[in-house]
Amino acid sequence: MSDTGLRPEIIQTPRGTRDFGIVEKPLTVFERLYNQAWLRKTFLVAVLVVIWELYARHLDNPLLVPTFTDTITAWWQAVISGVLPDRVLASLKVLAIGFSTGVVLAFVLTVLAITTRIGTDFLETMTAMFNPLPAIALLPLALIWFGLGIGSLVFVLVHSVLWAVALNTHAGFRGVSQTLRMVGRNYGLSGLPLVLRILIPAAFPSILSGLKIGWAFAWRTLIAAELVFGVASGKGGLGWYILESKNELDIPEVFAGLLTIIMIGLLVENVVFRTIENRTVRRWGMQN
Fold it and tell me: Which of 16, 127, 152, 176 has the lowest CB atom count within 10 Å?
């Protein structure tokens, strides 16, 4: 037996790297650009803008559909005059109050539901009763209870945020594996410390989805409520800006307001929530 360890019946012929063909092929310029998500989304938006411009020019009726050029002109004039930024800030201020209040209440209800049986029964009963109820349907009651002011808007915003966030958070908590729960209990965690250190990190993808849904519901509810009454403390919001423009038959300004709503939605989704995803669930390997 030879000490080399080679078997004589096997013929071993060394091969060069050229015999294996292409091992790694460099990406083309088109492939590198196509792999950029922001470029693909920008291209889709540009296509929609071109379709909008062509259709509006073909229709040739500014009272129905103004062109994208006229809309951008009206939007820029409203921005430099300071009217549109003031209306946006007024809406975002109310949105921040209502959204944060709804998230805090959803967190409290979910913690009670995950730690006590009566809390679970209460959350399931309340969500079954109030989650199907449109928030804007509560606006007449809010006007009676809180009057014409920010309080009425905050009330309907809390309703629109609370149940969506609570449902997704509770579903995420219930989906946490028993192994992680037992690990937490082995470290002596229970109650709120167990929720903060074990359940929230493990269920964060569901929590983040709930926050996205709650944000979308709150933003739509706020604009709809402001279309009914948008003047609070003598200052109107973005929905009131759209309603005023409609009453003056300034349709390019109406579309400018709608375009602002879309731009804020894209900004929150692709900057705020995308940054949170990249720094949490994507970084932790919990999401592709």
Answer: 16
Contact between 94 and 224 (Cβ < 8 Å): no
> pLDDT tens digit string along 59-95?
888 888 899 999 999 999 999 998 999 999 989 999 9
Q: What angle do CA 143, 145, 146 make, to 5 degrees?
A: 70
Q: Residue with structure tokens 């999401």? A: 287
31 vs 228: CA distance, rounded Å: 49
Tokens standing for 39? 């470029």
Pairing mode, if any, of strands 235-236 and 231-232?
A: antiparallel
The one-character DSSP state at 21 is -
Q: Could you tell me the CATH number of the domain that includes residue 234?
A: 1.10.3720.10
How far is the C-alpha of 281 from the C-alpha of 46, rounded, in Å? 30
Q: Any idea which residue has 């989304």 for tokens?
A: 41
User: In whole angstroms, what is the distance from residue 250 CA to residue 74 CA?
Assistant: 9
- How far is residue 123 CA from its own chain's centroid? 23
Whole-number average pLDDT of the chain: 84
- How would residue 230 be classed by pLDDT, with cut points 50, 70 and 90? low
User: Which has the higher per-residue pLDDT, 15 or 106?
Assistant: 106
pTM of the model: 0.80
DSSP state of 232: E
Q: Mention every residue, 6+ apart, whose C-beta is less than 8 A from residue 52.
A: 65, 67, 68
Query: What is the residue type of 4?
Result: T
Cα end-to-end span (Å), the chain: 53
Residue 48 in domain: no
Counting every residue written for the chain, the total comes to: 288
User: Which of 20-24, 49-53, 240-244, 271-275 is most confident?
Assistant: 49-53
**Total domains, the chain:** 1
Q: Which domain range does residue 87 map to?
A: 82-279
Contact 83, 143 (CB under 8 A): no
